[in-house]
Every structure is written in structure tokens, then in C-alpha cells.
Amino acid sequence: MGRMRPAAFGLTVVRHGETRYNKEKILQGQGIDEPLSETGFRQVNAAGLYLSNIKFTHVFTSDLLRAKQTTDAILKKSKFCKDAAVKYDARLRERKYGAAEGRPLSDLRTMAKAAGEQCPSFTPPGGETLEEVKARGKDFFEHLCCLVAQEARPENKAEEETEGSSTEMAGGSSTSSLTNHHSRLEFNSDRGAEILDANILVVSHGAFMRSWVGYFISDLACTLPSALSKTELSSVSPNTGISRFSIKLEMREDSKPKIHCVFLNRDDHLGEKMMAGNMEL
């Protein structure tokens, strides 16, 4: 029997829109479930327009309100995914900050200094360690890889194609491709068109996303855009910042996924002109 071809999927990761607590630099973590602010709703509508030409095959979001509202707004603007099934997953929640939740970020820094530590490695009482955040990010990513690998098996693909659900091509002419008028060139700049078995949208939170990217780089040797600076790499994504990755699975138990970061924490959809013309709440 011939060797099974690698499976591949696109992964688009979006941070939720702004809340009042974001603006006031107050830690929300998991215990403060604030809705989006007026600015936040404008941001998520702008992100939805930016992503409107992409057909996502799977949608996952943190089960916290600010992430749910962001996901709803993105799908509302979509040309192809308005009725997509959304899966809420607690593994995508923000880092838990325990006793520091509901308090200014400056208080966390003060607590860390008193303990002789520095942010973000400091863990406040009742909070999650960075290793614990990394562990649930790893667990969720392995879940995605297993999901795509299972769906990409020949017997499952044959059944899907019989139902009219063909594979997608990034950079191709199909309306279901992993492209839009903003991101087409960037995606194809160094890799050319790629056949995708799935195209996944994930909506999450700033500290979780920074941890997730760190896991991709440290444990899975994720390749990065050549122009990406160390400062950009270590920064928390802005509200509705968008990151995109392409992942290949060798379909062998002993092989690690191969990850390439197409772009990280992009926020050009939040330009003044876009935000001014996107007042729908």
C-alpha cells in the first residue's frame, strides 16, 4: 500500500475585540466576563470584513463572552460561513490570574516585584502558571491535528467529496480558498499554493495566544516570516489581531507537525478609514 500523502490545514487565530477592562488595563483572566466595548464591536466588524472571503471548515472559540461576541461578529460578516457550527472550548480561555483578576495590570507587576519575580512568569495566588497555560494550548493543538488527520484519511475524504465537499486550495480561484483580497500575496509569497484538508478559525485571548505561539516555536520549530522582529514575536496581540499559520501533518505517529507562520498579530484591518466606515454595532 502506498504512503499516505501529508494532510494540511490553515489556522487563523484572532484575539477578541476590546472590552472596557482592556482599555482601562484591568486584568480579566477567566473570572471577569466582560462584554465588548463600543470600540470592540467596531474592531470585530472590521475583522469580519477582513476575513469575509475565507471559507472556514471549523470554528473554535473560547467560551468567555468577549470571545463569543467576536466570533459571532466575524461569522456574521462572512460570505460563506454565516451558519458555521461554533465549538466553544474552555482550553482557549485566557490565562487565569487568580487574585489579580479585576485589578489593574500595575498591581500584578507590584505583586511580582514583591515576590522577587517578573511578569509574565509570575503566578499570582490562585492563578495559572505559564506551563499550565502551555499544556492546555498543546492539548488543544493536538486535538486539531487529530481532527484534521482523521478527516483527511482516504475513506473519509472520499465520502466528503461524494457529498460535494472538495478540498480547498490556498491561492486558487475557488471562492472557498484560504485567501482574501488582503492576504493572498502574503500567503503565497514563499510557499506557493497549498492544498488544504481543513481551514480552521480560532478566537482566543492575548496571553493564551502568546503562550501558544511560544509553544509552536519552542516545541514544534515553527518557521517565521523573515521580517518578524523579536519585539513583535514577544508582544501580546492587539485586540482583533490576526495571525495565520499553515500546518502539514506527515500522517505518521512518530512525526511532529510542520508549522509555518504566514503572519503574526496583523491589525491593518483597524486602519482609521476602515473603523470610521464600520460603525454597525
Could you explain the architecture of this structure?
With 281 residues, the protein is an alpha/beta fold. Helix content is 36%, strand content 16%. The chain is built from 10 helices and 8 strands. The strands form 2 sheets. The chain has a 6-stranded mixed β-sheet with strand order 3-2-6-1-7-8. Strands 4-5 form a two-stranded antiparallel sheet. Helix 2 crosses helix 3 and helix 5 packs across helix 8. It is globular and about 55 Å long. The C terminus is likely disordered.
Q: Count of DSSP helices?
A: 10
Low-confidence sequence ranges: 162-190, 277-281
Tell me, briefly, the overall form.
globular
* Helical content band: 25-40%
Strand count: 8
- The topology string of helices and strands comes to EHHEHEHHHEHEEHHEEH
- Strand line-up in the sheet with most strands: 3-2-6-1-7-8
Helix and strand composition category: alpha/beta
Instruction: Average the pLDDT over all residues and give the rounded result.
Output: 86
* Radius of gyration from CA coordinates: 19 Å
Percent strand: 15-25%
End-to-end C-alpha gap? 55 Å
Sheet with the most strands?
Answer: 6 strands, mixed
